[in-house]
Amino acid sequence: MEIRRQFSRIGWAFVVFCLVDVIIQVVMAVGIVLGNSHGYMWISDVNFLLLGQVSMYVFAFPVFWLMMKRIPSWKKDEGEKISLGSFFLWAVVCFGYTYIGNFLGQIFMGGMEAFTGMPQENPVMDTLNQMNPWMVFLTTVIVAPAMEEVMFRKILIDRIVPFGQGVAVVVSGIAFGLFHGNFYQFFYACGLGMIFAYLYSSTGRVRYGIFLHMMINMVGGVLPIALIQGMDGFGAETAVSLLGVMLLGILMLGSVAGAIVLTCIFAGRLTWFKGWAPLPEKGFWRLVLTAPGVVVFLVICAILFFVS
């Protein structure tokens, strides 16, 4: 399995995914503008996050999948199941690193704001805060976790794990972070992506990552929005929302502390398997990063990060 060619083909699949997604979104945006200009004002109420997922998963994903199907892959046989207790510990680690990564993103963007003198806004949270919590639940808790885990764990890892589990975990995590298109989400998405990648490559079961992903998006996306919107007023609903915010704060502090402690205890006990594809003694990452498809994908990601 030739390294540069394998990663280049994977990179081109992601490039085509991004381009199809952008083209469909532009077509949708033009359609909305034309619809409004012709008096179809109901079009302005269309949920843009849902349209974004339609462009990604209804149009771009099938093309991505057809390209990836042509690339040599390997499917790991299902290994040991994770016990309920182990799943709970992994959940603590995931929540903890989500908050740590989010904090790093806030610090980084705060530094960018101080350096450039330009106000930095979180495009995702600005969008979610204006949406109905039930629509946020559908798009971010149901659809996105399932599709993203299949795409960045099942499909991607099956094609790079022959180069080693460590390579698969790193590439999957970084690609997942870049996929989010902004520094607010990059750090925690990258960390979570690596955790989900380790679980999938170790067990052969993508459902663990999907369940954890759903939990993270539920607690980190839907609940805060519902609680914030519930505080717009007085009475019992406001009191419940305030209590919920306090509990989320406790969860944040507890999971961060728990993630750090669990990492110190168990990180050295994790088992890793080596790849079986022939690798050069040195220069592996240079081959990966200079693969044409990877280069173009990184350029597109850099543009998206700059625009956002």
Structure description:
This protein has 308 residues and is mostly helical. It is built from eleven helices and no strands. The relative contact order is 0.15.
List the helices and strands and how they pair.
Layout: H1 3-37, H2 48-69, H3 84-116, H4 123-128, H5 133-160, H6 165-179, H7 183-203, H8 207-230, H9 236-266, H10 284-289, H11 292-307
Radius of gyration: 21 Å
User: Strand tally, please?
Assistant: 0
The major β-sheet equals: none
Secondary structure class reads mainly alpha
Helix content: over 70%
* Average pLDDT level: 87
Helix-strand pattern, N to C?
A: HHHHHHHHHHH
> Ends: how far apart?
37 Å
How many H/I helical runs?
A: 11
Strand content: under 5%
Task: Supply the key terms.
308 residues, mainly alpha, 11 helices, 77% helix, 0% strand, globular
Summarize the structure.
This protein is an all-alpha fold and 308 residues long. Helices cover 77% and strands 0% of the residues.
